[in-house]
């Protein structure tokens, strides 16, 4: 006799729904963000800057506009972190998705430098800044919608839903340009590159439908119900938790090495090494498939063993694999390049799958959105957008890839040191409450005890009646 499988509880259904919605929403947001990086490597230098510039300068300036989005991300983290901690995660995520979609479609409609001169790069930078503000507010909220709705002890695992949006969005962006790579170069430069940007309009509609059906997390409902919100979350974060913000930002450079591989290397390989545009986009796509597959195992690993040990297992191999990737690409052998890119992808993608949940555990619920966003966007400001700019500048200055290779290994070293220091402060067993989570639980229990005391205390009239009798 067979028995029917147990039905999911309402909490499990809500957690699964939140995880899937987080994944789909971040996939759309990151698709919009990554198509900009791909286009800046392939075509923006020609479309939005003068053709009289020295060789390589147009690409360098295109990467500078890419960086503008990263410079704006902390603004988004502060503004939408404030809103997310004051009014809830859901409404904030709806706003960020609308902003991102509008800016992306706007880029696809922009006139070129040949048509409107200097106004073309000026408008490009403005829309890139809007993209940066949107994604700066998006990431923290998407992670929290997934992790705060997760079953007990599975916050890091569920935060990986939001993280999967990055390789999925990147893969969609890469495949969009891969399919367009067969176009003749003049047609691609004239209008072909605009198609992935205009497609964003349809994707945003899908994302909005899904996000409007989301429920707020129980943790945030409790904060709102008990009026535990903070008047100025960023002030609270900087006053009481600034060390955690700095350690969190220091833990994240390894999450930014994708811009070495998918943005800088794409430009370097196609403009200087002789790789065909479609060929190298295919190599990136293969590496992104590997990332999508292996990334969740980082969250699984840190959930099952001492998180410090798990981080060492994931990060230390990158000291060798990321530098080796550049030398493999330089061989101009497609098979060698693909294998090296896939191997270099494994450590940093597993790290990326785990680090969001690790950082979310570091901050109390009433300032968690702001704290998480501040750490992530501080790293993006200093490291993320500057990565292809730095790499291109080093290549232009030295004429070789050696310096870029060593810098990429340095990213991994900084991340490992700061992550270990962070875990020593917040806790390194994912199956137990972190320091901040335990503080939240203790405060909630204190509130409940006080409410019970008020409910059971005799009124003044009852006291007088008892005394009279």
Tell me about this structure.
By secondary structure, the chain is mostly helical. 80% of the residues lie in helices and 0% in strands. It is globular. It starts with 9 loop residues before the first helix and ends with a helix.
Give the ordered list of helices and strands.
Answer: HHHHHHHHHHHHHHHHHHHHHH
> How large a portion of the residues is in β-strands, by DSSP E?
under 5%
The CATH architecture comes to Up-down Bundle
Number of domains: 1
Transmembrane segments: 55-72, 93-113, 125-147, 168-189, 195-212, 242-260, 280-303, 310-329, 335-363, 375-395, 401-423
Keywords: Cell membrane, Membrane, Transmembrane, Transmembrane helix, Transport
Main location: membrane
GO molecular function: transmembrane transporter activity
What's this, in brief?
With 469 residues, this protein is mostly helical. The protein is built from 22 helices and no strands.
Task: List its salient traits.
transmembrane transporter activity, 22 helices, 469 residues, Growth Hormone, Chain: A, mainly alpha
